[in-house]
Amino acid sequence: MKNTTNKKNLDAYLTLIAGIVLVLLNVVLLAGKMPAYYSGILRFVGINIILAVSLNLINGITGQFSLGHAGFMAVGAYVSALVSIHLGWPLILALFVGALAAALLGVLIGLPTLRLKGDYLAIATLGLGEIIRVVILNLDITKGARGLGSIPRTTNIYLVELVAVITILFTVNLMRSTHGRALLSIREDEIAAEAMGINTTFYKVFAFSAGAFFAGLAGGLFAHSMGYIAPSNFEFMRSIEILVMVVLGGLGSITGSVVAAFVLTILPEALRGFAQFRMVLYSALLIAIMLFRPSGLMGTRELDVRSALTIFKSGGEKDAE
Amino acid sequence: MPSNHLLDAKGLTMNFGGLTAVANLNFHLNKGDLVGLIGPNGAGKTTVFNMLTGVYTPSEGTVELESELVSNLKPYKITRKGIARTFQNIRLFNELSVLDNVRIAFHSRRNYPIVNAVFLTPSFFKAERAVKKDARELLSILRLEDKQDEKAKNLSYGQMRRLEVARALATNPKLLLLDEPAAGMNPQETEELTELIALIREKFALTILLIEHDMSLVMKICERIMVLDYGVLIANGTPQEIQENERVIEAYLGGEV
Ligand SMILES: Nc1ncnc2c1ncn2[C@@H]1O[C@H](COP(=O)(O)OP(=O)(O)OP(=O)(O)O)[C@@H](O)[C@H]1O
Ligand SMILES: [Mg+2]
Q: ipTM more than 0.95?
C-alpha cells in the first residue's frame, strides 16, 4: 500500500516536471530566444517521439514485434516530398498523402505477414523495411542513392509539436477504450482474445497500419525539415534506434516512449564528439535495460495530469499522517 | 423438428498427423442441459472443445448451433454466436487487471466506433460506464469484486479459474464450455464452485458442457454424462447409468467404482 502511494507521488512529481519543461521550452521558443541549432534538435526530438509512440502501438501494446518502422517512415518521407516537389501541394496535404501511403502499405503487407508470430514476424518486417529501401534506391523518381533534394523546408517546431501531441492523444485515448484493450489482449494471449470475441486479425492490421500512418507523418516532417533525403536515412539501424527508445521507455508505456525519445535524441547531440560511439551506446543501453530493468524505465506506468493535481490536493492529508 | 437442440455435433473427427484424437463423434445438447464430458487423460476431451470453439477446424464433421452451421467460422465469430469457454491451462490476460480481463470480454457486446474513442465522444463515455458496471456485476457474482484492480497473474489458482468463468460469461453465451474448472482446487473451493455453476446456470439460462476429472462434482451436478475413450464416445447417459456401465468401468473408472 505504502509502496503504491510512493509510486503515485513519484508519477505526480514527474508529471509536474514534464509539464514545466514543456511550458518553458515553448515560452523560450515563442519569445524567439531559442538558437536555431537547439530548435533543430527539438524538431528531431518531436519526430522521434512520433516514431517511438507509433512503434509502441505495434510492438508494446499489440505485442507484434516489428523491425520495419524506418521503412514506413521512408514511404511517408518520399511520398510527401514528391507531392510537395511535383504537385506543389501545401505541407499539411503532402504530409497526409505520405502518411496515407505508408498506412496503405501497412495494410497490404500486414495482411499476409501478420499470420507470422514472434521471431518470424520480426524477420519479415525487417525484410519489408529493406525492400522499401531498395525500391527507393532503384527508382528514377526518387533519384536513387544520390538522394532527393530541393524539398521545401516548411516543417517548423510547432507543427512537429502538434503532430506529436496528436499521436500521443490518439494512442492514449485508444488505449483507454475497448479497442485499446483488444490490442492489449492480443499481446497477452491471442487464442484467449479470439475466444473473447475479438477479431484479432483486424486489430493486428489496424495497429500495424495506424503505426505506419504516424511513422509516415514523422517521415514527412523529417523530409520537409531536412530539405534533402536519401535511402541511407532509412536504413535498418534507424528502425533499431526507434526500437531502443520503445524498449528503454517500457513496452506499452506511452510516457516511457516520449521520455526515451527525448533522452536518446538529446544525448547523442550532447556527446557529438563521440559520434562514432553512438551505436555502441545504444547497444550497451539495450543490454543494460535487459539486465537491470527488462520492463523499461516506466514499466507500464503512465504520467497524467490528474496525478499531478493530487500533489496540491493531498498536502493536508500528509500532515495528518 | 429438433427445435430443442442447442448444439448438434455430427461426425466430428480430428486427425493430428497419424493420430486420431477424436473419431466420428455424434452428440447433441438440449437447451438448458448440464452435461459432463469425461474420459481418461488424452481421451480427446479438450480437442472436442477446440473443435466446438473453432480453435481447430474439424478434419471431418460439422457443428451446428441452433441448426446454424458454425464449424466453418473463425473462433471470434463462434464466440459471438454464443459459445464461450474456459481453458484447462488457464489463459488469462496476465499483465492486465482483473477488471480489464472481464471488460475485454464485453468487447463485441459493448462496442463503439474507433473514432468515438479517439475523439472522446459522449457515447464513448456512456459505453465505458456501462461496461464497467456490467463487468463489476459479473465480478461480484464470481466473488472477485475486491480483486478488480489486481493483476490477473497475482490471483490464487481458484480465483484465476473463477475469473476465467467471469470472462466467458461476459461474452453472453448460450453455451458455456468449462474445461476442468475445479482442477487444482481444494475440496472446499470445489464445493463452492459447484454451487456457483448451479447459480450461473439459473441466472444466465445457460446450457453447460463440462469437462472434469473430479467425479464427485460431475456425478453431483450433471444430468447426463458422455464418456470419451481414445477419441471414441463409449457411453452417454445419466450418472447412474454411467456408473454401472461395463465399458466405462473397464476403460476409465477401473477399480475405483
Ligand atoms: N495440437 C495438437 N497436435 C498434436 N496432437 C494433439 C494436439 N492437441 C491434442 N493432441 C493429442 O490429442 C490427444 C487428445 O488430447 P486432449 O488434450 O484432447 O485430451 P484430454 O482428453 O483433454 O486430456 P486431459 O484429460 O489430459 O486434458 C492427445 O493424445 C494429445 O496428445
Ligand atoms: Mg484436456
A: no
Inter-CA distances, A205 with A52, A168, A200, A247, B5, Å? 18, 20, 9, 22, 38
Angstroms from A308 CA to nearest CA on chain B: 21
How many domains would you assign to chain B?
2
pLDDT band at A4 (very low <50, low <70, confident <90, very high): low
The pLDDT assigned to A37 comes to 82
Which residue's CA lies nearest to atom 29 of ligand 1? B42
A1 confidence band (pLDDT: 50, 70, 90): very low
Query: Which atom of ligand 1 is nearest to B228's Cα?
Result: 21
C-alpha to C-alpha distances, B165 to A193, A283, B135, B143, B180, nearest whole angstrom = 14, 44, 12, 11, 11
- Establish if B225 belongs to a structural domain: yes
- Same domain for B86 and B114? no
Q: Whose CA is nearest to atom 30 of ligand 1?
A: B42
Contact with chain B for residue A195, Cβ under 8 A: yes
**pTM for the model:** 0.90
Segments of chain B scoring below 70 in pLDDT: 1-2, 252-257
- Do A173 and B117 count as a contact with CB atoms less than 8 A apart? yes
Of A167, A215, A173, residue with least CA distance to A68: A215
Residues of A in contact with B108 (CB under 8 A): 197-198
Domain A2-31+40-320 architecture: Orthogonal Bundle (1.10)
